[in-house]
Amino acid sequence: MRLLLVEDDNHVAAALSAVLARHGFDVTHARSGEEALQALVPESDGFGVVLLDLGLPDQDGYEVCGKIRKRTSTPVIMVTARSDVRSRIHGLNLGADDYVVKPYDTGELLARIHAVSRRSAQEELTGSTETQVLLGPVRIELPTRQVSVNGTPVQLTRKEFDLLALLAQRPGVVFRREQIISEVWRTSWEGTGRTLEVHVASLRSKLRMPALIETVRGVGYRLVAPAA
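== Sensory transduction protein RegX3 ==
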């Protein structure tokens, strides 16, 4: 996922960028509100999330958030030392999707990033006229949570469906194990990793398509769309 980090402190930005990179993010660093707005011009490649510090040197962070929201629907997470409720409400009213108060736990920040990106992706899918995902012989009915292969229904558990639907959002894109666990199981507990492996194996078996979900060793999984 591409992430736009808006932070005027180079030391903070470098440390956070390193952490985000280790978790699979492609980070672009903007040091001011103007740099952030320039990075979000319509013809640019899209960002999955904007991480916006409010203490910027050229513009008030709230003002920047308002301008970003007029320009794009990309999820915005505000990051600030202002912890009072009024400030948080003001930020959310301006269009921010979430609000993180410094000092924050890195695990919590990552979970919030995954959460807003997940909501955005789900809105793109369910907000369009398409209510299903077709992957060769595999049909995923999003509203009814039903899956079929060559017209034959396949019974999946809730987590199996959530996992398949997540991977199907971006066929060919590698989802890191940590991201999958955060988005499907809503936890960062490392012990869930074995559960993930079991669910992947179960999906391959039930769909009778072992090559549909590819293991990217040391990273995570991606869905390989089969030929129609």
